[in-house]
Amino acid sequence: MSGGGDAAGRLVRPFALTGGRTKPSRADFTLITSVTAVDPQPDGGTRPQPEHARILRLCARPIVVAELAAHLDLPVSVVCIMLCDLLEAGRITARSPRQISRTTDMDLLQKVRDGLGRL
User: Fold this and answer.
1) Each residue's pLDDT tens digit, 88-101
2) Are 3 and 27 spatial neighbours (Cβ–Cβ below 8 Å)?
3) Nearest one of 71, 46, 4, 68 to 12, comparing CA atoms
4) pTM of the model
């Protein structure tokens, strides 16, 4: 058996996993968004697909989207679409990274610029 079938399978698989969708239904997810499975999982609803169940297992502890995509060996865009499904079903929570400061410290930036100029 040649490796060509595997390449074709990898192209079809993400399309099948997302039900043909190419964009997430929400903009909640970036590469550094932290995702955690809800514990306990909500009752009712449809049973998660195998890949959704795998995501839920990986999200037992907080994990960022980029790391999750790496563990799943899937494109980030596909993972984000599946995460939207899980978020809308109430099966995960998503938390954006905290912004440390909204204001720019011009004095600090000046010191960095001056230090770089001395190199």
Assistant:
1) 889 999 998 876 66
2) no
3) 4
4) 0.66
